[in-house]
Amino acid sequence: MNKNQHVVPSGDQWAVRGEGNSKKTRITQTQKEAIEIARTIARKEQSELVIHGKDGRIRQKDSYGNDPFPPRG
């Protein structure tokens, strides 16, 4: 099963965490660095990248998997 990758605040740092995992995959100094790592994992696993803001709320989602509703056109 492919796990969505979440970029979440971790104190004054940022963390990459697979959905459902209690342990963080990686901890980085910047959100940008965490996003790059999470995006690489999400592409490899064909899952979704979920980026959270400093307040913990979801800011953005990018899908690298089998989208059930692909864009038309």
The H-and-E topology, N to C, reads as: EEEHEE
Total number of helical segments?
1
Care to count the β-strands?
A: 5
Which strand-content bin applies to the residues?
35-45%
The strand order across the widest sheet is 3-2-1-4-5
Mean pLDDT: 92
Largest sheet: 5 strands, mixed
Rg calculated over all Cα atoms:
12 Å
Secondary-structure-derived class = alpha+beta
Shape: globular
Distance between the termini: 29 Å
Helix % is 10-25%
Q: Which runs of at least 5 residues are low in confidence (pLDDT < 50)?
A: none
Region (Disordered): 1-28, 52-73
Biased composition (Basic and acidic residues): 52-64
Pfam families: DUF2188 (PF09954)
Protein name: DUF2188 domain-containing protein
Q: What would you note in describing this structure?
A:
Residues 1-28, 52-73 are annotated as: Disordered. This is DUF2188 domain-containing protein. Residues 52-64 have a biased composition (Basic and acidic residues). It comes from Parabacteroides hominis. By secondary structure, the protein is α+β, with helices and mostly antiparallel strands. 21% of the residues lie in helices and 36% in strands. The protein has a five-stranded mixed beta sheet, covered by helices on one side. The model has no long low-confidence stretch (mean pLDDT 92).
